[in-house]
Amino acid sequence: QVQLVESGGGLVQPGGSLRLSCAASGTFFTSVGWYRQAPGKQRELVAVIYSGGRTTYADYVKGRFTISRDNANNTVYLQMNSLKPEDTAVYYCTARTYPPSDYWGQGTQVTVSS
Question: Which pLDDT value is given to residue 69?
Answer without folding.
Answer: 95
